[in-house]
């Protein structure tokens, strides 16, 4: 390892400028707290953007990683491995799915799902059955295919020509879906809660309507649960709250508790339409990632953890509403489980980033979901004392913000 003293300036000198990271560098995490290079402590309400589901350095995850690191790291897809099979078994036994494809990121999982849907359309024998319906303000990843499926032009407009055959319609608008979905539709891809799009929950009637339209037209219904999956909403997967079962589900983020891993889950009806060589990945399902994922999934998939997420949502939301009663900056506090969005009133439109910058200065880390929504995605097991301390720090930031606006 280099002995070069690493500073934030090194990012500007050496890294491709697709991110604008904070001025400080976190160097240690424990539970729901982080420390930077100067030893300053932060309450972490970001959780790696809904990734660190068990917080930082959870003993079970560390144990799984270190034990596997002393066995075998990588064997290529010429072989399978024990941790991958163990995690696949857990996923199948606890969801609607029959088969699992492992990869490294949510974008890769969605890429696999969309490719599979295109093949399903091809094998249907219906000419031109290759159209994909997606939704405005959705987010499905950063590959060219998934950024095209995402409904936010700011992420795709500079990379044209984009893959064709993708139509975006209004979220939660069943009439728009009825007009768009037809015999040429091979897939509908939807987030049960739009995370990046503003923490907006799909209406159950809307999802049920999509299910019926897909069944009527022989289209694959894909649920993107990259952000909502693995306990984030208080159920193992958000589809379980809706009474609607997808054909394909994508999961990532919390699946590895911070170690990069993702998966596409599918029923046999569709999974079997992929043949050997149709799709692949070098690192997907590697023993390190799946060993950690196996441990993390087993911990989260318990009544105590999932019930605790719902209890923390009630507690966290009440704390935020108490702050809002005092400062009147939010129009709404919404979400499910520990995916929480605080929607700014129109008077404060576009100020979510500024509020988070003030919060970081006070020692609590938050997110945005667009310019008008402050978002929180902390550890699913965040201690209540850390919620209290984080909200106290956040309130100080809100007080500064309202004072500066008034001035």
UniProtKB/TrEMBL annotation:
Keyword Amino-acid biosynthesis included in the entry's annotation: yes
Entry-annotated residues carrying N6-(pyridoxal phosphate)lysine: 253
Domain of life according to the entry: Bacteria
EC number(s) reported in the record: 2.6.1.11
Reactions accelerated catalytically: N(2)-acetyl-L-ornithine + 2-oxoglutarate = N-acetyl-L-glutamate 5-semialdehyde + L-glutamate
Binding site for pyridoxal 5'-phosphate: 106-107, 139, 224-227, 282
InterPro entries: Ac/SucOrn_transaminase_bac (IPR017652), AcOrn/SuccOrn_fam (IPR004636), Aminotrans_3 (IPR005814), Aminotrans_3_PPA_site (IPR049704), Class-III_PLP-dep_AT (IPR050103), PyrdxlP-dep_Trfase (IPR015424), PyrdxlP-dep_Trfase_major (IPR015421), PyrdxlP-dep_Trfase_small (IPR015422)
Pathway: Amino-acid biosynthesis; L-arginine biosynthesis; N(2)-acetyl-L-ornithine from L-glutamate: step 4/4
Predominant cellular place of this UniProt entry's protein: cytoplasm
GO cellular component, one term: cytoplasm
Binding-site residues for N(2)-acetyl-L-ornithine, renumbered to this chain: 142, 281
Cofactor binding, note field: Binds 1 pyridoxal phosphate per subunit.
Cofactor: pyridoxal 5'-phosphate
UniProt xrefs under PANTHER family: AMINOTRANSFERASE CLASS III, SUCCINYLORNITHINE TRANSAMINASE
Oligomer status and interactors: Homodimer.
Other observations noted: May also have succinyldiaminopimelate aminotransferase activity, thus carrying out the corresponding step in lysine biosynthesis.
Listed HAMAP family: ArgD_aminotrans_3
Protein's recorded name: Acetylornithine aminotransferase
